[in-house]
């Protein structure tokens, strides 16, 4: 086979391959768009329900804060003792 024939055959194969991929991707975009329109037409998103009023969170008491501070202080002390 002559090298020019081989080159033309390669270009021909490349153009067919790229054309096939282009047609496939174009049809994929078309089918996806059509499917999206059909789904949104026949299955619309439900309207969001009105949010229920939330009860006020109970206020933190002073004892909760002191317990928390004590726990954090103990953890820091343990960490510093391990480091030294």
Automatic annotation (TrEMBL):
The keyword Membrane applies. GO terms for biological process: sodium ion export across plasma membrane. It catalyses: oxaloacetate + 2 Na(+)(in) + H(+) = pyruvate + 2 Na(+)(out) + CO2. Its main location: membrane. The chain crosses the membrane at residues 12-31. The keyword Transport applies. Keywords: Cell membrane, Ion transport, Membrane, Sodium, Sodium transport, Translocase, Transmembrane, Transmembrane helix, Transport. InterPro entries: Na_pump_deCOase (IPR005899), OadG (IPR023424). It is a single-pass membrane protein. Its EC number is 7.2.4.2. Its cofactor is Na(+). One of its GO terms (molecular function) is decarboxylation-driven active transmembrane transporter activity. Belongs to the OadG family. Heterotrimer of an alpha, a beta and a gamma subunit. This is Probable oxaloacetate decarboxylase gamma chain. It comes from Endozoicomonas montiporae.
